[in-house]
Amino acid sequence: MKAVILAGGAGTRLQPLTTELPKPMVSLFGKPVLEHILLLLRKNGVEEAAITLHYLPEAVTGYFGDGRQWGMNLQYFYEDEPLGTAGGVKACKSFLGDEDFIVISGDCVCDFDLVDCARLHRERRAEATLLLHRVAEPLEYGLVRTDEEGRVTAFVEKPGWGQVFTDQVNTGVYLLAPSALDLVPDGQSFDFSKELFPELLRQKRPLYGQVPRGYWRDMGECNTYLQTVVDALDGKVALDLGLPQQAEGIWSGVPLDPSVEVTTPCWIGRDVQLGAWSKIGDHTVLEQGATVGRESVLRRTVVMGASVGTESQLEGAILCPNAKVGDGCSLYPGAVVGAEAMVGDHSVLRPQVRIWPGLQVKAGSRLTASLVSGPGPGGITFGDDGVIRGIIGGDLGPELLMDLGSALAESGQVAVGWSGGAGAEALALAAAAGVTASGAWVIDHDGISPAAAAWMAEYYGLPGSLFLEQREDQLDLYCFGAQGQCFSREKQRKLESNLLRRSLRRPPAERMGGRREMSSINESYLAAAVQAAGPAGAHTVTAAVADGTCGQELLVSGLEWIGCQVERRWINGCPGFAAKKGGMELRIRTEEGKELSREEVLLLTCQALLESGEMRLLLPPEAPLAVDQLAKAYGGQVERMNQGIWTGRQRCLNDALFGACLILRQMQRTGETVTQMAQRLPGCQVQKRVVPLHSSRGAVMGALAKRFPDARRMENGLRVEMEHGSIWVSPTGDQEALRVAAEGAQIEIARELCDFITDQAREWDSL
Predict the structure, then answer these.
(1) Pair (450, 532) in one structural domain
(2) Model-level pTM?
């Protein structure tokens, strides 16, 4: 069997290790990662391999040549423009012939039994077999669901936690029949996981997945690189470490000075110099030519032919070839020093600080941020609610906001607004500078809440909108699309990736963008909410609004516009309204002071919509089934969407001002109180719980999906409908746990359902 090794990637997430080196050539125990792949293939009987190249190809060809030294026949295929995973393999078709073949990434580490995998592939007569691996944190991978026979049933590419129904991830190792490539166009970019495999699944061709025994890890980031080193020294992966064991857990190519304290396991290469009284801690790798000074302490650290001065302490660090760390330095976990870079004496690199190749850190420096030349690390992550959160002057500074503005500039024009303080204003200016520096136009506006900015994006059809909301030193960043919705998960991933790779436009001076101003946004937003609420009624209504945030001030103005008397404090006998989460969530208190649940507020809003003639409600998948019952009573219907888009009158479902105006208008027309309106709602009691897990979220979600085959699989969770209610289950984004929300007409039913699904999850978790 022949193989195709995909080795064209630049490895931007692994920078600065890969700033001047392709990812497959990063050293692992003194050998390029790609060499470990060749040894694996040769061990499994593969003697011929094609290697696809794009980024710095000479580094690969110059090292491996024709492959004879490794008992291989290597042929190289160059891509002037990236062809994608499947497109790159299709370009090798002349090499492959008419037999089944293996595809493997040149930057992964694994020890799969490929002979056994190929046997099962042939027995099944599969057109494509995907080798899968179980991963506890699968967000950076493509998920693959299979049935009991191993047939692939679904793909989810780089999911959010709500989409995790299995812990089986695509390793990028495939067994393919030549016919599978017939669907790949010649000379065009085409991807296995995003295009070819979904098409094979759609055509119901024999597409299988198998989970072989053994180890696999994508060495995509510095932290995963270090974890691979730890796993190899712990014996979790069968790698050729290339050195004799001088003692249990000590691989060394040099004799050890009796004064040097060595903690196992560790790997010490040839020509390594260790100073007297130095301490080489566990899981440390010192590659050929490394130097460690007197009394220095290293733990869980990789030194690639670099030097460490005297009395320095390094933990969880990586030093690239010819890097130098001076005397008395401290490097914390995640610190990386690029090739030829130098850290001056008595300097401190705090966690995750990276120094780009060739740069110098002055003696006595205390670095809390990376020192970058050229492409550098990004720094944003969207939360589960689609909001970026951080600390002003900490993880969210002007440089990052400028890069964010540049990344958003793809759309041609970007609205930028802010509220809350001078920090938000300064960073909004930085984002605007990034937009214009990338050749796009900034629309400065005076909207004072994220909800107003979202409405503006919809009303004016703006392709991109950014709003910065400050609360003390905390900053929330909202990114909206053309219909005023938060970015989809796919768009969030793309933005995160562009910032990480700094794939940003920098046009010449004559093609720079500019700025326009748009005023009176708040007044227009208020007018739109009042108009959407419909005509006024004859009854006088008084409402209370407390708290002085920007969103609350807009809410007060909106209620006054529709003719309500507004109290600025909570009082008995008066319904209370509040705008939360940037003005996108409505909270309501009844006249008796009872705060309605989120589900009850949603039902109340939907009831007001239905009574005002709106018969088709657009709701997120996790919305309670009681809404369906409510809609049916009015002759309406509910449509659930994975990516919520609330426009026009239905903006009230995701906008506190629109929702409050609609409900209070209905009260003006009918004379009812909030209490009376709530009494007409169908019973909807929800019991919520977070269920901690010992195993992975993906594995338990996959087990629940198989246990309840009729359950609805949505983008952000699983809905199980029972006889007396329903259960919503989704993985949490920040811990090994599941969120459970059980719904029933009475609280006792909701509790029973919550207990039931919790027991089911714990049963699978204990297996």
Answers:
(1) no
(2) 0.62
